[in-house]
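Researcher: Re-running this chain for the archive, since the previous output was lost when a drive failed. Same request as before.
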Amino acid sequence: MLQRGGEVVIRMLENVKQVTIGPLIAKFIAKGTLVYTDEYDIYSRLEEWGYEHETVCHAEGGYARDDDEDGFCEVHVNTMEGFWSLLRSWLRPHRGIPQETLPLYLGFFEFVHNARARGKRLLGSLLSLLLTPPCNPA
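Model: Regenerated structure tokens:
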């Protein structure tokens, strides 16, 4: 899940069923939020769960839609597709990651992406914490 211009949440799922993804969506996305997805069936109950939902149909060659004809394609999943591309490129040199440790790699990539999205303020704070000598009480 990725908020446009915001943070990403990555979780390795046991399966791709609505019963699995539903609680994650409820935890990380506020009710009433407009959610853009592809046409995959796992997302078909988003409106029932309290979200606005727009889709693009890749199977029909659709990748973006300009519903109000202002020249700007509001409905697309290109942000998430781009994120997956970055993640795959980052994982590729590791040449196979065991299932047990994959969540750690995903968590690290999520952290790095979100720190970058928050800007230098967060990264600077973390670095100062890591580089500051521990306090020695007298």
